[in-house]
Amino acid sequence: MQLKNNKKNKNSFGIYLGMGQEKEYVMENLSFLVSSGMPIAESLKAIETELKTNFMKKMIGQARESVENGVPLHKALEETGLFGVHEISLIKNGEESGILVGNLRVIAEQAAKNRIFKSRLRSALMYPALILSVTFVIGLGVAWFILPKLATMFTQLHVKLPLITKIFISLGSFLSKYGAIFVPILIVSMIVIVYFVFYFPKTRIIGQYFLYSIPGIKKLIQELEISRLGYLLGTLNKAGLPLLQAIGSLKESTLSPFYGRFYDFLYQNIEDGNSFEQSFSKYKDIRDVLPASIQQIIVIGEQSGNLSTALVKIGNVYEEKTELTSKNISVALEPILLVIVWAGVMLVAVAVILPIYSLIGGIDK
């Protein structure tokens, strides 16, 4: 049995429009205002006036009107389609058990954690991507505007050109003739490739395989997912959300298809009545997703009745590890990127200097 997606959930749509942080803002302030004694409808009205996106204002306005008409908060928010199944379940659970404020706070904290997890992975990749992009742009500019002029000069001097210079000259000549067409096509093609390799749901597993082939990035992804698993499963279960729905939340929020398959497997096994220990023993690649020590902590927590506490502790420990790993990746990649940039500069320099050196040698003779 695969985890089912909530058809009404437009969470990803909200994120694409830049509303992920506003959802977090709604939950944080709703929790604060309700805890201070303000009625839910008035709290929603106060929040509505502070929202920036018109779409979010409209959705919260609809929820406020529903609450004013006697609809429970979880139903009103569910109708907006902005929140996931587990979030609605937590709000419903909070309304029924009298712990709404606490559960709203849990949802806000969960959204903040997810944002932190994603930003750490992006920040680890942003530095090398920026350096390589700037190098590419500068190299393209040199090839497009400078090399054709050098080609003209070398042709007039009748200098015998080495192979590397001929390659650069040919590239420069090509760009001088067709650059206005070729460069935009190249840039658009690169954007399309990046989208399909890293973002498109059906093909992004290719990008995951690529990232997993980079030792430091692989370690960071594993630590992020273990931290997410510990924190989300622990806090949601502690807040009263059924374990299966908590695992469903993990599946919704994961960035990795590898962990997505694991959560599907875990969901099915827990639903069939198996324990974590039995589920872990049946998963073929369990060591690739969870270290043996983490498995043992979860199993002991389940057997002792302290599963939520054990999971939260795992989340906190691995969150600290992800922060350290993301910093170490930038430090480790810096000399590698410098070597790549140096190699590019040297290639261009050699291509230009060798013919000049040959020309000077010919004059001396």
Characterization of the model:
By secondary structure, the chain is an all-alpha fold. It has two domains: 73 residues, no CATH class; 252 residues, Up-down Bundle (Receptor-associated Protein). It contains 16 helices and no strands. The longest helix is centred in the middle third of the chain and has 58 residues. It is elongated, with a radius of gyration of 28 Å. The N terminus is likely disordered.
Features:
Receptor-associated Protein, 83% helix, 2 domains, 365 residues, mainly alpha
Give me the secondary-structure topology:
Layout: H1 11-16, H2 20-35, H3 40-50, H4 54-68, H5 73-80, H6 85-97, H7 100-157, H8 163-198, H9 205-212, H10 215-238, H11 243-253, H12 257-271, H13 276-282, H14 286-289, H15 292-304, H16 307-364
Shape: elongated
Strand content: under 5%
Q: Would you tell me the structural class of the helices and strands? A: mainly alpha
| Low-confidence region ranges | 1-17
N-C termini distance: 82 Å
User: Roughly how many Å is the radius of gyration?
Assistant: 28 Å
